[in-house]
Structure formats: C-alpha cells, structure tokens
Amino acid sequence: MAKPDELVFAPLGGVGEIGMNLSIYGLGNRQQRAWMAVDLGVSFGDEEHLPGIDLIMPDISFLEKERKNLMGLVLTHAHEDHFGAIIDLWPKLKCPIYATQFSAALFEAKCAAERNAPKIPVTVVPSGGRVDVGPFNVEFIPVAHSIPEAHALAIHTEAGTVLHTGDWKIDPTPTLGSPTDEKRLRELGEEGVLALIGDSTNAVRDGRSPSEAEVARTIIDLVKSAKGRVAVTTFASNVARIKAVAAAAKAADREVVVVGRAMERVVQVARECGYLDGVQNFRSPEVYGHLPQDKVLALCTGSQGEPRAALARIANDDHPEITLNRGDSVIFSSRTIPGNEKAVGSIINNLVLQGVEIITDRDHLVHVSGHPRRDELRDMIGWVKPQLLIPVHGEALHLNEHAKLARAAGVPRVLVVRNGDLIKLGPGDPGIIGEVPSGRLYKDGTILEDSKSRAVVERRRMAFSGCAFVAIAMTEQGELADDPEVDLVGIPEKNRAGEPFDDLVFDAVVSTIEGLPKARRRDADALGESVRRAVRAVINEHWGKKPPCLVHVLTV
C-alpha cells in the first residue's frame, strides 16, 4: 500500500523577525514534492548597520531549485512586508500569483510606478473564494486588518487542512471591509484543522486591539477642534484610516490635500475598487497654499520617518508646496516601527521647533494595531481547535509568548521554529524533519546582493572606520619612482597630539618600503600587502580603529 503524501511547512522569512514574510508548503514525499509559496515580502534597511541598503528580501535559492515543482504564490494581503519583494524576485520563479482584487490592483499600480518592472500576471480570486494551486485547494477567509482585503488562507490538502492566518485582528466594527469571518473559522474548527500557523506580533499585549471606529471618532474630534492647518500622517495602505481622515475633514469643513506618491497611488486604487465610494474628491498639493488655514487638511506619507517622504520634507521646510507654521497641528495616526524611532523623533523635533503641535498615540487614540492581542489569539484557538500551532510573524519574544498562550489554551502540540526549519505537519506526529536554505538578499541600488557580498561587508566597515588609499610608483629595480600618494577618507585629520594623519601614514609607507629587501619591493603583491598592514597598524596605534586600506602598486 502506497504511503500517503506528507504535508510540510517551512518559513523562509518572517520568523524571529517582523517583516520579510515568505512561507512555503509542500505536499509529496522526500523525493519529490509540489510546493506553494505564501507571501513574498521585504523588510527595510537600517542605515546604521547596512549603509546604502534599501530593502532586505528572503533568499529564494531553494524555490529557484524547485521551480518546476512550484505551483504558485498566494498573497494574504498587500502590505510591503508581504508582497514587496515580488517585482525583484518573481523573474527568478515565474510562477502563477493568486490574490484578491485590491491586492492585485495595488500590485499593478506598484508595477506601473516602477521603472522597467517585468510584466507579472496575477490571477484574481474573489474574497471568500477558493482556488486550486496544484494539489493545494486554497480558501481566502476575510479577516480584519489595517488594509482592505486581508485574508487568512485555509489550505485544504488530502493530508489535512492548515489555517495560515496572515495578519489579522478581531474588529467587530471595522470602518471599511469585512470583519474577521468568525462563522467560517468556527466551521473549519468543526471540520478539523491540522495546524494553525499564526500571527504573533502582539502576543505580549493583554486584552484586545481597539476598533478602527474608535480611532475614527478621535480623529473627528481632534480635527474639529484644531485652529490652524492640520496634517495627518499614516501608513499609505491604511484605507480605513484615509476614509476616517476624509470624514473628519468633511465634519470640520476642510479640504483634503493628498501629499506623497504612495498615498496618491493607494487612494486611486481604493477608489477604483469601490472602497472610497461616497468619499469627497481630494485635492492636489498645488492648491494647498491657496486654501484658508482653517479649511485645509494635508494627508501625508512619511509616518515612519522616511527621509524622502512628504512629512520629512515638510519638517525640513523644503517641500515645494506644503508648509506648516506655529499653531498648526500634525497627527501621527501610526505606530513607529521598531528601528525607526530616531528618524521619526528627528521629524517630530523639527516640527516642534517650528511651533507645530504634535499629536501621537501617546496622547490620544489616533492609531490601533492591525494585529491580535492575547484575548484575540485565545478566540482564534477556540474557534479553530488546531491539533498543532506554530507561531510566526514575530521576534523571539513574540513567538515564545504565543507558544505559551497556546499551550495554556490546550493546543495538543506547539512548535517554535526558525527560518529554514522544515516541519512535517502530517500525517502522524508533527516535528522538525530537516532544513532548507534560507537567508537574506540585500537590494543595493538596482542590484541584489547576498548577505556575504563584498560590497555590503566592506561598506559596513567603511562606515565605521573610513578608508585609506595608497598609490605607489616603483621602478623595475625596486626603488620608489616618486613620493607615494596617500588619501584618507572618513579618518580624523589629526591624532590626539595634533599630528596630521596624512603625515603619519606617509612616513609609515615610506619606512615600510625602505625596510623591505629588494626582492620583496619588486613583487607588487608582497609590497602592497606589507604597506597595507603598516598603514592599518599606524592608524590603529593613533586612533584605535583599523580602516580598510587599498594599496595600488604601479611599476614604471
């Protein structure tokens, strides 16, 4: 009798971290499996540790190797940490993509805005609908989140059903879109769920996430009571929040001016998909300066401190159309993502220096998370009754807290895993059965590099300790043809005693060359290495840091 097919799962991103989500499911035996990918997202570079790196993406080398067995990529929703890597990585996979209408439309708009984006077809699946992706029958179950058309995926296979929650919360009064489909989730629980692969972002927070309806009421009150100009910044993808801001502006008899390309793009897609039906038309930035101060509201990108976004330019007073003055207000209707605190703080400080009043979620309920707190996690477990729970979408602390909660809620098996772990879900006892290649790719300008690439490693070192450049011209007899050229970049001009570093390095180069035997002087590689070591040693002696040193030897 043939062994039944084995259902496996592996996270390639989004576990032990928040962002860069990529999960894969496999069905078959150890010799051959059909694979399906869920989401393909990015996280963002940190200038301090990764200078010049714009985006970080999951390593998809395993999927490239399995390309002929990759049945498709299914999207839970259209946040960047779930679909932001597709344009760069899809050409390596060329698999079918499945998404609901809003996600597909936002992706199409993103491709249209990107220079030289490949033509990437997306199959649109109705919300609540089902689609066959090879041997996987995937059901899109509506869940509340901070973007339209977020879905949990019920992945039906002959080995059992898995619920991949994606990002979700329980919001009984969403201002836009469907609430989380409790009825269908309960039905799944009655039918039997093999595994729940669940969002852990807010697993450390007690209670329940407040509703978008409460935020909408707060924003109306704040905008109505404001005296001067008002600017509101939020995540561009949060259409419910955009709708709430529009309602507040209308109640206060203000015009909404949309500032920032990402916001303009989402507004356009939301209107096309019917999510802003009945909402007044918005104005372009050119009219901002012509409207009375108490009749305008600027809806801006830049809630995370992005240096090129609208709010950063306004705070630096270098936006061509939008200015704020003493007595104006800025509402940060967002949460600062960990790692962005410095950038957001800098914007807030610049605005405060201009006399602008700042309103954040520390003062008023102007933002709610799109992720479930502990009581909501318990509800999901109670509805779905999984045999196995695997926490994902969180750092180590979040995963661990979600796992403890699941065990306390009576889930028979709970597994905490890492990116790259290959987990057997069924049939039989679940567990980690192997490992698949995983890692990170860095988008450096227009080039994708792996994490060990020379450019990434060297730039990090240069950011920390500068760089020394030395050019030496030697005769064929092994004598200096001219004085060495020394160029120090990012290195202090003088040491603590006031001696110029240029002179210290120059002397070290000359004395090193003169101290070498003639045979070594005639060997360009040996000479270059000796000089490199000497330069790093002298700079370290006087500064305490060893910069990279590049030595060019020319024989004349």
TrEMBL record:
Name this polypeptide is given: Ribonuclease J
Matches recorded under SMART domains: Lactamase_B
SUPFAM superfamilies found in the cross-reference section: Metallo-hydrolase/oxidoreductase (SSF56281)
Domain (Metallo-beta-lactamase): residue spans on this chain: 21-219
Presence of keyword Amino-acid biosynthesis: no
UniProt keyword annotation of Zinc present: yes
Native source organism of the sequence: Bradyrhizobium shewense
Pfam name, any one: RNase_J_C
Alphabetized PANTHER family for the sequence: RIBONUCLEASE J
Keywords, ordered alphabetically: Cytoplasm, Exonuclease, Hydrolase, Metal-binding, Nuclease, RNA-binding, Zinc
GO molecular function: exonuclease activity; metal ion binding; RNA binding
